[in-house]
Amino acid sequence: MKFAYISVALFAALATAAPQPQRGGRPTRITSRVPPRPTPTKKCDMTLCADAVNECGMMYGGCFPACPGWPTPTFTPPPCPTPKKCDIILCSDAVNECGMMYGGCFEACPDSPTPTFTPPPCPSGWDKGHGKPGKGN
């Protein structure tokens, strides 16, 4: 809808634009090949910029030469980003055999894999039999 308004404003501006004065004199020599344009061969000194916003609020558009008889481009709005499927976050807290905590948080979507968390090793010198550091009394 906004792009249609911009297009109407563009054509109104072109209709009221004063004609550009023609330059006389000798033509200049072309020293490099220019790819053919699907527009008239006259030089266009007028540039318009069209800015639009899609239904998600993302801006798009661009600038183009805007002289009578020149084509007006159309700008395609960018697609809206797809929403996240799942907003569920789970956290796994665990304690290893020597009392050290480990784990983490992850997205718990129906199609998402559940991560596994590896317990950290106990510190060196830890006595597993008594649950405290020592020499294994």
TrEMBL record:
Name of protein: Uncharacterized protein
Region of interest (Disordered), ranges: 20-41
Cleavable signal peptide: 1-17
Superkingdom: Eukaryota
Signal found in the keyword field: yes
Annotated keywords: Signal
